[in-house]
Amino acid sequence: MKKLFVFFSLLAALCGMSATAYAGDAVALAETVSAAVAPVPNKGDTTWMLLSTLLVILMIVPGLSLFYGGLVRAKNMLSVLSQVFAIFALVSILWVVYGYTLAFGDGGALNWMIGDLSKLFLAGVTPDSTAATFTDGVVIPELSFVAFQLTFAAITTALIIGGFAERIKFSALLVFSALWFTFSYLPIAHMVWATGGYLFEKGALDFAGGTVVHINAGIAALVGAIVIGKRIGYGKEPMAPHNLPMTMIGASLLWVGWFGFNAGSNLEATGGAALALLNTIVATGAAALSWMFAEWLLRGKPSMLGIASGAIAGLVAVTPAAGLVGPMGAIILGAIAGPVCLWAVSGLKKTLGYDDSLDVFGIHAVGGIIGAIGTGIFVSPALGGVGVDGYTMGGQVMTQATGVLVTVVWSGVVSFVLFKLLDVTMGLRVSEEAEREGLDTAIHGERAYNL
Amino acid sequence: MKMVVAIIKPFKLDEVREALSAIGVQGITVTEVKGFGRQKGHTELYRGAEYVVDFLPKIKLEAAIKSDLLDQVLEAIEKAANTGKIGDGKIFVSDLEQVIRIRTGESGPDAL
């Protein structure tokens, strides 16, 4: 019946074009009709969102696990793999139970900070319900949006474990993950991405999650590393990565998956997605090279770990900017992120003396801040960006800085309270004996390599 | 009877084994070991962390031989394991009191 109605309205529009005398009336009729018919998801967009969701899952379960896993000592390999895997599983359940509705619902008086519980257990979300995109009248299936956003919540929570790898108690980590997801991820995601959210309404730009994902997780990891304390023997015993080829495979999977993360955040299969995809290649390339050359110059040798770390730093930096800046802007962002993150994981880390085992702060928080501020600069049409309404560089940079500040403070405070709370109740850290033995056998009762 | 223990560079193992077979040495035992001598270690850099690696990988080779073969064995190892660069290794020689072949119970030089 609907189709028939649309057909007649199109016919009317066509008649309007040929019979000029009635054109005005016919077009008006056609507009009335299209406004009355709810938009239907486009199959291309839907496919792209489903594919992007799979790509982000690829980033987490094999990608992040192997990237992190290769960087720890052999005795802790399985602990890292278990932590990432379990957190992905845990957050995916929490997301559909109450996460989605709190992140993207309308929270009424509290809407500046958090959503509501109207879609608890995904109430009312069906294969027919739709979610808005960035284009008026274009929608995607709401379930695809739920699934896509689920993966963001999961990877953000999983990223944090790198800060205190090799010494965290598994049970405490699971409790922390559930609480941090609830009290830090959901409010920040709502504030940045949901209509009515504090930073969204201020006009802070975060295309794919520079603040929500990377700064948020990076700060939590730093706070965790400080509250839990250094690994036994840190700075005295060698703690070299046990398998850099694993780290390389993980970094590569992260890069491939990141196309879903960044280009998928466009929510439509359009030129905007293509821009985000291209930026995700070139910013990463620039950062891999700039880290490599900086290391070569300062330390004498270009390392594989440096190239891979630079690539991740570039991916992080281009995340908030992906669909908003031009490719040349993306290259500059990446080129800056490489050396600055190298400094963050070496100079800054040494000066401040914390043991962020896998450099979540140095790469994700620092890279995220470069990206967030840089987005405010390179979104400028004069610099090849797509521009935003009423753009001034100074104003936008200030707005971006506000977004960074809110995220740093929010995540910092929530993480600190949660870590302290868990430390006095169930204890955050494994026993000294278990730490020396390695978490694989001490906590998980298995060994990664039986050679 | 003599016990010859040689520490050599890992990539020289095949050449040394061939040289020893050529002069009639019946068997050797090989172990992967780590150690330090005059050859310096090296530093490894992982992002910000720098580790000094003092112990370098070497091969330890043990051969029990008849005394009259000693000079030839020493010459064979010396020649085959030599690169002329620091870290080529060392050979240690000691007297061997007794040897027994477990399968047959033979002892002394007959067991070699």
Structure at a glance:
Chain A has helices spanning 2-18, 23-36, 43-71, 77-104, 142-159, 170-193, 198-202, 210-228, 244-264, 271-299, 304-318, 327-352, 360-378, 393-425, 432-437, 439-444; strands spanning 130-132, 139-141.
Descriptive terms for the model:
heterodimer, A: 451 residues, mainly alpha, Ammonium transporter fold, two-stranded antiparallel ribbon, 2 strands, 69% helix, 1% strand, B: 112 residues, alpha+beta, four-stranded antiparallel β-sheet, 6 strands
Report on this model:
The complex is a heterodimer of chains A (451) and B (112). By secondary structure, chain A is mostly helical. Chain A has helices spanning 2-18, 23-36, 43-71, 77-104, 142-159, 170-193, 198-202, 210-228, 244-264, 271-299, 304-318, 327-352, 360-378, 393-425, 432-437, 439-444; strands at 130-132, 139-141. Chain A has a two-stranded antiparallel sheet with strand order 1-2. In chain B, a hairpin with a 2-residue loop joins β3 and β4. In chain B, 16% of the residues are buried. With 112 residues, chain B is of the alpha+beta class. Chain B has two helices and six strands. A four-stranded antiparallel sheet of chain B has the order 2-5-1-6, covered by helices on one side. Chain B has a two-stranded antiparallel ribbon with strand order 3-4. At the A-B interface, α11 and α12 of A face β3 of B.
User: What overall geometry of chain B do the principal axes of the alpha carbons give?
Assistant: elongated
Q: CATH homologous superfamily of the largest domain in chain A, by name?
A: Ammonium transporter AmtB like domains
Q: How many structurally independent domains of chain A?
A: 2
Run of helices and strands of chain A: HHHHEEHHHHHHHHHHHH
> How far apart are the first and last residues' alpha carbons of chain A, in Å?
68 Å
Largest beta sheet of chain A, briefly?
Answer: 2 strands, antiparallel
Helix content estimate of chain A: 55-70%
* The CATH architecture of the largest domain in chain A: Orthogonal Bundle
Strand content of chain A: under 5%
Mean pLDDT across all amino acids of chain A: 93
Class derived from helix and strand content of chain A: mainly alpha
How far apart the termini of chain B lie comes to 9 Å
Strand neighbour order, sheet with most strands of chain A: 1-2
CATH topology of the largest domain in chain A: Ammonium transporter fold
Largest interface: A-B, 19 and 7 residues
Q: Low-confidence spans of chain B: pLDDT under 50, at least 5 residues?
A: none
Strand portion of chain B, in percent? 35-45%
Indicate the structural class of chain B.
Answer: alpha+beta
Name the average pLDDT of chain B: 93
Radius of gyration of chain A: 23 Å
Helix content of chain B: 10-25%
